[in-house]
């Protein structure tokens, strides 16, 4: 496994090595989300627009969108996975504020 500087920064780790030493499963707020993502990836060899919450190094929680695909060898065997994470926390907050505003309007 490897990570780029953007992921280190997104998750708030002091450096690349400390993130690589972390137990990735423990970063998930809901362990069932991780299990569901792993199952989808194993079944389909791709994971698209998978949204879940992760815990940053300082304990704060962020929403992420995960996109992953399996890289196969010439015999069709998985060699490794390649993916990206996007911090979608701001969008999630805006969505929640919009829903709350609509609820207030409907109550009037």
Keywords:
108 residues; alpha+beta
Descriptive report:
- The chain has 108 residues and is α+β, with helices and mostly antiparallel strands.
- 42% of the residues lie in helices and 30% in strands.
- The protein has four helices and three strands.
- It has helices at 5-10, 16-21, 31-44, 89-107; strands spanning 46-55, 61-72, 78-87.
- The protein has a three-stranded antiparallel sheet with strand order 1-2-3, sandwiched between helices.
- The relative contact order is 0.13.
- The model has no long low-confidence stretch (mean pLDDT 92).
- Helix fraction bin: 40-55%
Q: What is the H/E string?
A: HHHEEEH
Taking the sheet with the most strands, its summary is:
3 strands, antiparallel
Low-confidence stretches: none
Any idea what the shape is?
Answer: globular
Rg estimate, integer Å: 17 Å
Q: How is the largest sheet built, in terms of strand order?
A: 1-2-3
Give a brief description:
42% of the residues lie in helices and 30% in strands.
Secondary structure topology:
Layout: H1 5-10, H2 16-21, H3 31-44, E1 46-55, E2 61-72, E3 78-87, H4 89-107
Antiparallel strand pairs: 1-2, 2-3
